Amino acid sequence: MTGRPLPDMAGAQRRWEAWFDAFTRIRDAWPVRVEALCPDGDGGRLHITYTGSSESRIGFATLWCDVARDGIFLPRVGIPEGAEMLAFDATPEERAAVMPEIRLIPTDPYDG
């Protein structure tokens, strides 16, 4: 059989779940700010950028590593009261001021 090798689905799923677990630890500790290391083991620190509605505190979150600039996107999350948040209509310049360009880790290994 020729063609592309199949992705390591179990490894890809474990990677995404490790990132999601890190997001959960950071979110659940709020308002205490916890230092979370990148699950990929590169020594980087994790950061969350929330984007949403200031009225409903519902939006999306991006968790990203400041070294490799990999991360995950969570499409519908509650944003903790007092957490910094970009508005849905934030400009590209406003986004760039708080988050660099990142590579998203796919939830489905076949999407990567």
Biggest sheet descriptor: 5 strands, mixed
Number of helical stretches of at least 4 residues: 2
Strand content: 25-35%
Q: How widely separated are the two ends?
A: 21 Å
Global shape: globular
Order of helices and strands: HEEEEHE
**Main sheet: strand order:** 4-1-2-3-5
Helix fraction, binned, reads: 25-40%
DSSP, total strands = 5
Mean pLDDT: 90
How does the helix and strand content classify structurally? alpha/beta
- Work out the radius of gyration: 15 Å
Which spans have pLDDT < 50 for at least 5 consecutive residues?
none
Number of domains: 1
Protein name: GNAT family N-acetyltransferase
Organism: Paractinoplanes lichenicola
What topology does this entry show?
Elements (H helix, E strand, L loop, with lengths): L8 H21 L16 E7 L5 E8 L4 E9 L6 E3 L4 H7 L4 E2 L8
Parallel strand pairs: 1-4, 3-5
Antiparallel strand pairs: 1-2, 2-3
Characterization of the model:
- The protein has 112 residues and is α/β, with parallel strands linked by helices.
- It has one domain (9-111).
- Helices cover 25% and strands 26% of the residues.
- Strands 4-1-2-3-5 form a 5-stranded mixed beta sheet, with helices on both faces.
- The two termini are 21 Å apart.
- The model has no long low-confidence stretch (mean pLDDT 90).
